[in-house]
Fold:
Amino acid sequence: MAGASIVITVNGAEQQVPAGTTVLGLVEILGLAGKPVAVEKNREVVPRARHREEPLADGDRLELVTFVGGG
Amino acid sequence: MTPPASDSWSLGDRGFHSRIIVGTGKYASIDETRAAIEASGAEMVTVALRRVDLSSGAPTVLDAIDRKRYVLLPNTAGCYTADEAIRTLHLARELGMDEMVKLEVIGDPKTLFPDNAATVEAAARLVKEGFKVLPYCGDDLVTCKRLADVGCLAVMPLAAPIGSGLGIRNPHNIRLIIENVSVPVIVDAGVGTASDAAVAMELGATAVLMNTGIAAAKKPVLMAEAMRLAVDAGRKAYLAGRMPMKAYANASSPVVGLIE
Structure:
């Protein structure tokens, strides 16, 4: 499968990542490792403890969120 | 000045001395956010949840908040249904927070008035899931009672529309809620200047939550200090018990012994 890639949607924008990428892998690709980020895959929360093994598949829709200033 | 320990209050098992809760939106910078929080004397601050900005490595609001000093209160601003609010808080929980959440279910985009029925529904579901819920709601006694009945730790009736700075538009409603609801009443939204915060506290509110009233002042950090002092002054006036209002004068100086 080396070189194969999948297309996922991250925060509304399509993104190509290598096949076999996990949630943690995506977080790293985006430069967000170690940052406070919560992840939803296809509208289901992916708990932080599962980021390392949670696989991504072609067509998955991801939401990556964090806290921002607000009232 | 630190208020006397006897005047502390609590939400569930969490005790507070400060009676001001501040938002973290609309500030010019992270430094200003941090300084305003500090000057307000708040022990709890609200934050919102949004998509990560993938194009920017800019500091986030969390850089302004020392988690050892402040309770983080995630909100559900921008949610229009119970489902959206609950989905948002499931994500907030993943980010690490302090069990308490500010529930907002908006019902109208122009006024940002809450959908009270949907708020009660969302609150009931969140309480069942173990969240400690502080709901933003209308200044309506029956709604507040329902929210207390489903297990909310406090109720947070609006004083005026969010971000309007119009002050306490219906002090009588706020007073009725304070006198008839079994949980703490936190006046949320509409405070525009220090006297508004003092009025809320004089009515007997447990605390006041504000954001724009500080952030949109010309000098936010100075206004944060003014709000801290006003909340303290209003609280003390409430505890002191104001004099009854009279229609006519009642001389302060003795009426006997006047020279002739």
Notes: The interface with chain B takes residues 10-13, 30-32, 35-40, 43, 45, 47-48, 63-71 of chain A (CB under 8 Å).
